[in-house]
Amino acid sequence: MLDDFLKIINNESVVRYLKLSVQTLYQKDYPFCSYLAVNYAGSKLINAKFYVTAFKKVDFSLVKEFFPFSEEVSNAYEKYEEGKVYNPANMGVVFVFKMSPSGRQLYTYGQRVKEDINPPIDQPGLVTEPKQFDDYFAHEVGASHAYGKNYYIIMNRMNIKTMLCRASLELDDSDVDLIEYSTFEGKQKILAAISSVAKTENYLRRTGGGEFLALHDFIRDKFGFIPVSPGKYLNSPVRTIHYFSPGEPVYFRDSLALMTMLSRIEQGEVLSC
Known about the structure:
Elements lengths: L1 H8 L2 H14 L6 E10 L2 E11 L5 H4 L7 H9 L13 E7 L5 E9 L21 E7 L4 E9 L2 H11 L10 E7 L2 E7 L3 H11 L2 H14 L2 E8 L5 E6 L10 E2 H10 L7
Parallel strand pairs: 1-11
Antiparallel strand pairs: 1-2, 1-10, 2-3, 3-4, 4-5, 5-6, 6-7, 7-8, 8-9, 9-10
């Protein structure tokens, strides 16, 4: 698993994405967030994911150097209004590059929009919750096809408990601030927002096997990252964990993790374990 991860982060396409995305989107006078995530199942690494969230709106031509714009993404990005304050109404625009050990690549774009674009949530029996966030537009592009993704924020305590159970995610519901639930391509997934890094670390130690923990320890020790937002696919063994650079303990905010990773890669510090 660790060997697969090292091959991915040293891949030329990944290094190019890290370099160009940060160079293009990072603006010191605007909020900025970059972070890593991995999907895994047992001792198998499914993919590594590289996220960049920016608030400064830059020209299409610059972003196209590292991110393939579809018509759907272009139309959404045209409507984005840049801001300098991180809040639920404006959480920036998100660019994600994913790579599997086989070399399969996916690109995902996301932003909050004013329109109601989500269908009703497909989970029966949940308590009806008032809508507290704008809908989230997300579009994923692969080599052969593209598709949309639907996202829902779950904050009701009973709903959080229900969804943790349905995903078989071994967390105490009292530790979870909210759940992000997503559906795409017939798949369903939850991410749990937990403010305690120690409790997230404890979850990983309880549920992770030796191969995963070797990868986790490498990421933590080599880059100094902290684990954030564990997740799991419903009806599947696939799990997710995100890694941020330490800082203000606010969910999805102010992290320069990919800059740290790029620096280590360019210095030749992560060629092997």
